[in-house]
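Dear Dr. K.,

Following up on our conversation at the group meeting, I've run the structure prediction for Right-handed parallel beta-helix repeat-containing protein from Phocaeicola sartorii. I'm pasting the input sequence below exactly as I used it, so you can double-check it against your construct before we proceed with anything downstream. Let me know if the numbering doesn't match what you have in your notebook.
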Amino acid sequence: MKRKNWLLAAFLWVNAIGCYADGNNVLYVSPKGDDRNAGTLSRPLKTIGAALGKMKEITAGQQVEVVLRGGTYEINATLEVNCDHVFIHPYQDEVVTISGGKSVTRNSLKPVKEQAVLGRLQPQVRSLIREIDFKKNRMELVGLHATGFGRPSQVAWTEIFVDGQPLRIARWPNDSTVMIGKIQESGVAKEGKEAPFPVFGYQEERPSSWKSVENMWISGYFAHGYANDMICVESIDTIHKMIHTGQHTVYGFMTGAPWRQWLALNLLEELDVPGEYVIDAGRGKMYVYPPAGKMENWSISLLEGPLMAIEHCKDVKVQGITFEYGRHIGIYMENTHCALIKNCIIRNMGGVGVSIGKGTLKAGNQRGHESGGNPASRVVGDLMGTVYQDILFNREGGTENGVVDCHIYNVGAGGISLGGGDRASLTPAGNYVENCRIHDYNRIEKSYRPGIWMDGVGNRISKCDIYNAPSMAILFHGNNHVIELCDITNVCSEVDDQGAVYYGRDPSEQGNVIRYCYFHELSPRHRVTATYHDDGACGAEVYGNIYYKAGSLPVLIGGGHNNHYRHNIFIDSPIAIHIDARMQGWGKFMIEKGAIIDQRLQTVNYKNPPYSTAYPLLAEYWNNDTSYPKGNVIEGNLFYKIGNVVRGRTEWLELYNNWATGSDPGFVDAADPLKGFKDDALIYQRINGFPQLPFEKIGCDLSK
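The predicted structure tokens came back this morning:
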């Protein structure tokens, strides 16, 4: 036995050494190398692009390793991987970073001398502000652009980072927002006529002191609490205290709700806090208030395309690398099979961290009033609008691709966009995100840019920690997806009428499972939900989840059918489950003949296979009064310290074998539900068949 163990150890050691041996199928790269070299350990290449180019010289079908020596690789073009059987990783335990930006020295930050600029700065900071002249440094400076609900996801503007942290655009107020005042022009078209740009009032004195609105933008929730926007300002009327904007939004401007507030951005007059900056693309300069302390590393984001694109290939693995400082996507994948991103850090990107599958682009849709567009590679674009308009849109996301053990944070427009599978045939992709930590992912685009977007058929999100976001954790479309074992907290922190996990307005999106997740500490300020079945969503299985202080409405079933909640735990909320019959009221337009629900059911040919066999109840959708929510089963759930178990009419639900109590049902620690129940907990007596839940498996295993 000892001899067998020794031989096994020797075999593994030899194979490990072989991974780093000079061989025809191993290419070494080092920041100190030379692209004229052979790519051996002793004579490495200098750039990753050169190694990827040399891979094509190797016989097809052979495994190729690209081994990166430690250091930072600054790139000015997307790294393209389009060969099979590729493994890209660091040498041993060396630290490798791929950067889409450029490092600048502290000497590049010069004192401001131009009087026109100094005159706009507050007196106490004039000697502290520094400028970076992008023209002199031979870098492109890209100014701000509109973002918001309905608008396509775009390449971000130029950003600056210090010691790995993004600085923020100067803003007023520094740590809050202010209410929208009287509206002179709402910006909403009437009687088919083109609407003027919105004009609204302000009550505060500070805006009247601004000397110029050059490069000024405003951001906020101007109408609905789920639709954040950022648009430019044309002028300020200080006599009447009116701000004249220079762009439209989808919903215009409204007053009367607590979230309808705004803030100003990118004003020299408000460059007053360390760690802020202002972009003046016209002058080609960025004005920076350096953070306090000794700042070692300054970086500027430059690259427009993805840092890496893996396309039309199989069996590719990228492991142990940090990707940062790009203005768009970190890693893009299209039409791949068994591609794996493992143990990587993806941060400080202007767009989404990872995108699997195509997006779309529609020319002239900068206002966000149109949906759709043509399929496009290496973008997200107007994917949200396209999926809304064309529910069978196939992103060509490939099959069995994964993002595993990754840390994604400080990204601009969502963590991961996960596509794959074909809705027309219900063919699954089997793509997955597993054991990832995703947080702080809406620095630039907030509306409908979740921690993970998932569409298509048969994809999975497992064991992810998702937190610190103004909007959703997970938004999904499609069929037969699984969301499981996730720890979700402090999301939807700004919004109204959104959910941590959200989908809806398409009853053909069935077969989806949400299980064993921990939703906790969600904002109760507005209408915030943990699991949100919007506008007639049907056929979800939701079981084994914990809802602890999970928003004002932990569960919302918005007029849909056949959603099944079982063996969930609800703790310390004023309401547990909201259900309504919106299709009998304000939402009845959705179920009219030929309207959106009818269109979507006809699109999937719901009365015929594969949909009729996969979801037999869907084939009967119109057989009864569709406006009446039916078949929603709530069974075997615990409601502990819940004010009202149901908001809505209880006859809209099938309630049985549940237990509502104000007494401890047997937690090991009621303040930490993940510690589970005692072996003799009362819950096992009061709820027939209540199972042992996998509390210990919930959440990401990565070290913090």
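Two things stood out to me. Helices lie at 2-19, 48-55, 115-118, 383-389, 596-603, 611-614, 683-686. The longest helix spans residues 2-19.

Best regards,
J.T.
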